[in-house]
């Protein structure tokens, strides 16, 4: 069959009201789910899954994909407005999105987030359609040594988000790495810092740590000084994003999308590191470097492009190899299986109509996302006008519900509170929170892949430089570290 | 004003606590704890049975994913719950026979639970990549003797972990822990990927987790552990290979409550499960994923779980796989 | 706090954490099996490496702190305030009590109290709105999470909601 035949077969499958309606509903559910901290895109997809069992395969799968894409975008809304990331992927958006909201530019930040998200979504979908096969075979070359080198390189992001002092950023990162060791050991299954508590054996819940680190310190700071915010132009989120803004950030958005596509196509990394990497690259290349972290719109654009660029690309390993790249795609694979579809190379031969139906649906989904997102922004923007001393208790209550809902465990609420105080102390001592978080995400990946590599080679360290991919990442890591050291020495940033 | 409201609320609530003691079980929605994450075998199985089971129970079932530590976090939560049948657990092979057999420090034992049924059996299959040049179990064993063979698992104390060791042991490898390297991954999906990308040589896991890879020709099955062959798996059974002992090596999902679960609740669960497992949609969903639906009574379920536990325990002691730290 | 004292405090704390981990924390709280074949595979290897790095960063912070001019100061330093400390303590108590109250009272009633107490702790200018929100928001969240999202929100031993 030619491409045209495939397209027509796919079109005949999706060309019904039901399919597009499902996709649209999915995006709505996703945006709302993503906008509620703790509910997150993952939960929203898991909750929608049972409804897809009775639908046609293509309708059901597009419904789930709609939820996924909507959820990843929706996460940026609370990140910008109340400094609480709706999904882990949107934690990088906080760095500049929330300062923008503080300056009274929440409308502009949200608008840019939407434009960047939709652009990245389109890039990601195109990458899926055009390069799925090629990227998938590339992703299969990633064994533990390659992962180790890639993640080591990703840790250099920390330099970009450390703010005024690199040393304090490094301290935050190391503390994050240490905290990530809590739980059962991967290789031997022994306890590490669990103190015999079964709740600690699974490690500290990522979302509890995340919300504790970003949202709770704001509430504590409000207890310290309830009137600090008065006189700031926080309200009036009327400012809008302009086409000039978009044009200025376009390079960062495309760069972020490409980073998202690459990291998304490699199973096991996820959207959060991609958003941070995209952010730090945008900062490195930007002429307004100093403004990053203080409300730079390009920072919002880069992080949202980074996380939405992942959304389409995670389908590459799923469709081309049958391998789920993250939790969400693992759930979506369930939907394929229930309908007797087996993702993998054969699906491109046996169910090519479904594949092309999905492609068409995905392209349409970017448009729907833009429509639903615009409405959602208008709906949520009023949050910026709520009196802050009513808003903060509401955020606290919302966080309690949300963090509980992630894993149905009250213990996680305690983790969130405890991390809130850690975060507050870090704030007072001017330790940046972002490196802590990045390290907390990447730490287990770094250690696990290192040890898996050692198991593979019988503890021969040479395996860490076994092929071109590892060489590449080692070289860029060294170059980046040298560049960072030089800029530190020349500016003497070690000091304050 | 504020305090008076609280006081009123408290007194109202105190008055309402005098619930009729003889209320028929279940009084309200039942919490069903799934100790593994969304998208995994336990989760799919639990959510597939949720609807027919909810109809049989007549009250809503709240599906609660409480993940962590290979199923331990959720299991402990149910162990500590009141034995009134309002909190029940989806027990699974990894958390309720492999982990108790292997982990000395596990915060629960089999005696902490009352298993009311086992309703699903998942055959286990071992597979390698076609590129490995391994075409049979004999080839694999020969390769193990050469050295450099490894197997992946979804983590320490998982079915996949013990399966790799048990299969090699049955096929005459003297000390499988030394002869082959165990490379744990995080989750079943990652374990299969590790074999696909050459990180590990083989894995033994639920046939449902391998079905799509086998159908796509990305993985080659070497054998299945059941008596009967499995559709879609062009590989000999353990019995055909003369290793009937491996029939014990299967995955399963069951339902358990805390150990002080009263008899009448357990009886009700048996009846509900008998109705729920008749549901055609449920059977179709599960069998299409490669599971075998077999409803066990409470007694059968206990004999089955204990039996498997003893087999694993003996193997763990034999090979020195016990985790003490 | 001045930039100098921040660096010095942090540096000293980091060194202390590092020493405590290396000599007390890791030997006691990280168990390692006796049959570890290679040191790099041991469960304690990574924590030891990280503790070492913590110490190095601590030393770095101290050295950097000593080079900072003692007369430098932060422009946006929050002023000290004993009432503020009191409010921090009150918030800490609210959080601790919440943890104990959640399983007993249930999430809805607990969060209503949390909302009310924190709103008054922040000396809100809209006490009436705060009370209404304290009742409506937890209820609305309960309805959403329990009935739309199907989450088993803890109900407590007293008044149960449908």
Describe the structure.
The complex is a heterotrimer of chains A (496), B (325) and C (162). Helix content of chain A is 73%, strand content 1%. Chain A is an all-alpha fold. Chain A has a two-stranded antiparallel ribbon with strand order 1-2. In chain A, β1 and β2 (191-192) form a beta hairpin. In chain A, α1 packs across α19, α7 (106-139) runs parallel beside α15 and α14 (271-285) packs antiparallel against α15 (297-313). The longest helix of chain A has 34 residues, at 106-139. Chain B has 325 residues and is of the alpha/beta class. Chain B has two domains: 29-121 and 251-319, D-Maltodextrin-Binding Protein, domain 2; 124-248, D-Maltodextrin-Binding Protein, domain 2. Chain B is 43% helix and 19% strand. Chain B has helices at 2-16, 41-57, 72-79, 93-102, 137-146, 159-170, 176-179, 188-196, 207-215, 263-276, 280-288, 298-319; strands spanning 30-34, 61-65, 87-92, 113-122, 124-128, 149-153, 180-184, 202-206, 220-224, 251-258, 292-293. In chain B, α2 (41-57) links the parallel β1 and β2. Residues 9-22 of chain B have low confidence and may be disordered. Chain C is mainly alpha-helical and 162 residues long. Chain C folds into two domains: 3-67, no CATH class; 82-148, no CATH class. Helix content of chain C is 69%, strand content 0%. Chain C is built from five helices and no strands. In chain C, α1 (3-29) runs antiparallel to α2 (45-67). The N and C termini of chain C lie far apart (52 Å). The mean pLDDT of chain C is 86. The chains are: A mainly alpha (496), B alpha/beta (325), C mainly alpha (162). At the A-C interface, α10, β2, α12, α20 and α21 of A face α1, α2, α3, α4 and α5 of C.
